[in-house]
Amino acid sequence: MPELKCPVCGGALQLDMSTFRCGSGHSFDLSKQGYVNLLMSNRSSVKRHGDDKLMVRARKDFLEKNYYLFLRDEICRLAKEYRGEGVVDFLDAGCGEGWYTSAVKEALEEAGGCSCVGIDISKEALMAAGKRDKSVKWAVASINALPVPDESCDVILSVFAPHDDGEFARVLRPGGIIIKVMPLETHLFGLKKAVYDKPYLNGPAEYAPEGFEKLCRSEKREMLKLESNEDIQNLFMMTPYYYKTGREDQAKLNMLQSLETEAHFAICIVKKV
Q1: Using 50, 70 and 90 to split pLDDT, how confident is the model at 49?
Q2: Do the beta carbons of residue 7 and residue 141 sit within 8 Å?
Q3: In whole angstroms, how large is the CA radius of gyration of the chain?
Q4: How far is CA 162 from the centre of its chain?
């Protein structure tokens, strides 16, 4: 399993009872929910980091109804196909509450063995992730300062998350892969039409960082049929649109009991050369 590294000195962290410690004496407690906080909050002026409790709960409830199961299954299939040989070290960079993380970890284990670290900047998300799967090392940390050593990972997953190509290149071994999932042009357009007077299409999505070879680009599209207002509201609240939309437009969803909307994704796989 990729070692976690100390965010203060960069030394390897070892778990001692319920505390991670490095050789220099820095220590970080494992929470009762099963995650360790390695985010150096005192270096940031931002008081709230990542998704809040409302967004995490909405996403967890929505995903656990398997609306995006078709996407998760495709990610797992591709991860098994492109994983490489032997036991692989897997990092989910922007893992959220771990719905994709645990499934991909299991797929990689079935294909030859896997160890797993999941990181996210949201403490609320890691609380849910820690409850989901005790076999994963969960850490609150930034995408821009991944808490793992150089060339310690074989597979990185990034699902709808910010990315730092320099950090990804640093922590991947040569031949390691990134699985990057992005929304495409018509993603959630039916939802947008229900909320906005002038909905817009997303821009095209490609992922081709310097120093990487493109292996695969897969597209998945399905029409989602939401049959309750709870599911409609959860889908909206788990998107970036929620906090950018005024109350008048948000209120348009309150009376809806059903909604059809597209789900349209690209899955890009690139290999470090």
Answers
A1: low
A2: yes
A3: 19
A4: 9
Give dist(CA 233, CA 210) in Å, integer: 39
pLDDT per position as a tens digit, 229-272: 999 999 999 998 888 899 999 999 998 999 999 999 999 999 99
Query: Starting from the edge strand earliest in sequence, which strands make up the sheet with 88-93, in order?
Result: 35-37, 137-140, 114-120, 88-93, 153-159, 172-183, 259-272, 212-226
Model pTM greater than 0.85? yes
| Tokens at 170, concatenated | 């640093």
Q: What is the 3-state secondary structure (H, E, C) of the chain?
A: CCCCECCCCCCECEEECCEEECCCCCEEEECCCCEEECCCHHHCCCCCCCCCHHHHHHHHHHHCCCCCHHHHHHHHHHHHHHCCCCCEEEEEECCCCCHHHHHHHHHHHHCCCEEEEEEECCHHHHHHHHHHCCCCEEEECCHHHCCCCCCCEEEEEEECCCCCHHHHHHHEEEEEEEEEEEECCCCCHHHHHHHCCCCCCCCCCCCCCCCEEEEEEEEEEEEEEECCHHHHHHHHHCCCCHHHCCHHHHHHHCCCCCEEEEEEEEEEEEEEC
CA distances from 40 to 13, 66, 95, 223 (A): 15, 35, 19, 41
Which tokens go with 84?
A: 């490489």
The closest alpha carbon to 43, from 95, 8, 6, 5, belongs to 8
The pLDDT value recorded for residue 160 is 94
Determine the Cα–Cα distance for residues 121 and 123; give it in Å rounded to an integer.
Answer: 6
49-272, what's its fold? Rossmann fold (3.40.50)
